[in-house]
Specification:
This protein is an alpha/beta fold. It has six helices and five strands; from the N terminus they run E-H-E-H-E-H-E-H-E-H-H. The protein has one domain: HUPs (Rossmann fold). A five-stranded parallel beta sheet has the order 3-2-1-4-5, sandwiched between helices. The structure holds adenosine-5'-diphosphate (ADP).
Amino acid sequence: MRVYVYPGSFDPVTNGHVDIIKRAASLCDKLIVAVLVNSSKNPSFTLDERVNLLKCAISDVPNVQIESFSGLLIDFMTKKKAAVIIKGLRAVSDFEYELQMALLNKNLNPDIETLFMMTNINYSFLSSSSVKELARNKGNIDGLVPDCIKDEVIKKFSI
Ligand code: ADP
């Protein structure tokens, strides 16, 4: 069984993430979306909130599972018998960091491959932090996040 893992903070999930999830899920038998517990990014949403928002966003994709992980991604991969890490690439600015991570992981376990998927052109400008910045300033986030999570994102920043 081909198990792939798509890791990230998903703080919150955006339509850019959902696009990668759907495309990656079509390439494997099971895609595990792995939500990082100890994000250095100091998340705005709790782990439970990030997991629940993802669950709502991908409820129509059958072979996707949402899980959380802490520690090394490579150890999580081994535990889940997963051989491929999925990463999305937006701009050249993503490349340097992702190259370093991919090589570091390759060095830790040569059997694990990192597979990069190019962003959908419609979402190339989209990040969780830009969604949060818009929500904080009462900007319109229609079409940037899944409809079922929109109200929760707006509520989070209206306090
Ligand atoms: P962000 O970079 O938005 O804060 P994450 O840390 O949750 O998000 O990112 C998880 C993964 O999703 C990374 O591989 C990142 O490159 C990818 N990703 C994020 N936004 C997009 C997008 N709009 N298009 C393609 N990939 C994306």
